[in-house]
Design a protein that fits this description.
The chain is α+β, with helices and mostly antiparallel strands. The chain has one domain: HIT-like (HIT family, subunit A, 2-Layer Sandwich), CATH 3.30.428.10. The chain has three helices and five strands. The chain has a five-stranded antiparallel sheet. Strand 2 and strand 3 form a beta hairpin. The chain is globular.
């Protein structure tokens, strides 16, 4: 956890463009966008991988997805979006902290 870039952003030890934050999670801009809009929703509790999450943690992912769907306009998302969770190094997970990529905009880059 001490080397986790997402935890450091949450604790304000590193800069990140935080668009939304509450007691459970935050949404930041991705520093290497793969689409016109590329945001990341990050639970505040550090859990490296989905298979390490508790049932409450899994429920939080559902809450995050619901919140995203209700704040599309506030996040600047129009015309649809894609939600992606990469699980493990071989799947493209570069930060070992469960997170959801939110991609939107006119052109979505294929993975």
């Amino acid at each position: 956890m001490e080397d986790c870039v997402f935890c450091k952003i949450r604790l304000k030890e590193l800069h990140g463009t935080i668009l939304y934050s509450d007691d459970d999670f935050m949404i930041i801009k991705d520093i290497n966008p793969q689409a016109k809009i590329h945001l990341i929703a990050i639970p505040n509790t550090h859990v490296p991988y989905i298979d390490m999450m508790t049932e409450d943690g899994a429920c939080l992912l559902g809450k995050i997805i619901s919140k995203i769907s209700h704040m599309q306009e506030e996040l600047g998302i129009t015309g649809g979006y894609r939600l992606i969770i990469n699980q493990g190094d071989n799947a493209g997970q570069t930060v070992a902290h469960v997170h959801i990529h939110i991609l939107g905009g006119e052109k979505l880059k294929e993975f």
